[in-house]
Amino acid sequence: MADSNNSTLKSYVDSATGAAQSALGSLTGSTGDKAAGEARKDKGTAEHDASHAVGKAGPFAISGSGGVSRDDPNRTEGSWNQTVGSAKESIGNMVGADGLKAEGIRQNREGKGQEAQGQLSDLGKGMGDRVQGALGSGVAGLTGDRVGQEKYQNMHDDGKTAQRSAEADIQRQA
């Protein structure tokens, strides 16, 4: 289940509240309020970082919320094609085989496109699962369906993991 300490929204609220408290402390001359505000802003920053943290092991990702996702196969296959293409290009360069070099360039380029397609698929599916999970969990909570609420919360968490994993890879390549 999601941990409220990993909420992006909560991190923004804590950062804004901390900034306001720090500003109030500065205006009134209260060093205690200013220090408490700065501490709350720092807490908000840490919460934001935790809500975006994703650990990767091969094609699997896990987030601080406990969500687990498996990368779209195009991400893994695209990455592999890039590696093989780069190797062919390098070998073609070393031995003067223009055909092998050109084949490596082509395979590397295709691999980049294939990986991007997988990333976009994971990003879209992750966003969709987060929305469906959040709405479903809310409705299940209102109706008292605890099993359904947990199911939808897990869907939300897994979707968040897939989304954050794709976002991290996209940012890394930008």
Describe the fold and architecture.
- It is a single chain.
- Mean pLDDT is 87; it is low at 1-5.
- With 174 residues, this protein is mostly helical.
- It starts with 7 loop residues before the first helix and ends with a helix.
- Helix 4 runs antiparallel to helix 5.
- It has five helices and three strands; from the N terminus they run ααβββααα.
- 80% of the residues lie in helices and 6% in strands.
- The protein has a three-stranded antiparallel sheet with strand order 1-2-3, with helices on one face.
Keywords:
174 residues; single chain; three-stranded antiparallel sheet; mainly alpha; disordered N terminus
Low-pLDDT runs of 5+ residues are 1-5
Quickly give the structural class.
Answer: mainly alpha
Percent of sequence in beta strands: 5-15%
First-to-last CA distance: 32 Å
Number of strands: 3
Q: Summarize the biggest pleated sheet.
A: 3 strands, antiparallel
Biggest sheet: strands side by side, in what order? 1-2-3
Radius of gyration: 23 Å
What is the string of helix and strand elements?
A: HHEEEHHH
Query: How many H/I helical runs?
Result: 5
Estimated helix fraction: over 70%
Shape: flat
Output mean pLDDT. 87
